[in-house]
Amino acid sequence: NYNFLVNKKTKGTNMDSCFGICGKDWVILASDMAVNRSIFTLKHDEDKIMQLNKFKIVAASGEQTDRYQYCNMMMRNLQLMEFRTGFEPDVESTAQFMRTELATALRKAPFQVNLLIGGFDELDGTAKMYWMDYLGTLQQVTKGAHGYAGYFVNSVLDNNYKKDMTLEEGIAALQKCVLELKTRFIINQPTFIAKIVTKDGVQVMQL
Questions:
Q1: Taking the C-alpha atoms of 178, 102, 137 and 96 in order, what is their torsion angle to the nearest 10 degrees?
Q2: CA distance 52 to 66
Q3: pTM as predicted
Q4: pLDDT, tens only, 38-70
């Protein structure tokens, strides 16, 4: 079963590029907008970053159907949780919930998705980002990437990340990541989208 998961993952998941960086009170997630199947590119306008609620977003890479189904299921369940309890769960609680659901599904009908979860906590005024793979491995990070993009952008993020960097510096760092991918990556990914989470909510921008 494990070999089946690994082999299936290598076929489609790595074709997507998603990466992100987190500052003290902001987080930016970016992703390409291409949908590829085998040797074909099917579209260049797919938004792979879903807004879960007012202050949380998730960038997903993986099989198109699994990515869409899992992210939508998480968004609806989080909305139901908020409706039942009357409050919005924080970023860590959201990430842990998503990790539990993914790990549970792993032994039944696994989702081939890798995730970057980002958000802003109103209570303490800080932003957080979590890295999670298709096996349910979860880790809080300040920068991260999924797919083949990791081979190119991790070094760029390492070189540009600073502990107290500003939002403008974070955007510039991700623009350098996009430039690196367009210059060196053999797969054609012409369009990238980014979503920024701050105390004011979620903003969308093209990279």
A1: 100
A2: 17
A3: 0.88
A4: 788 888 888 999 999 889 999 999 888 899 999
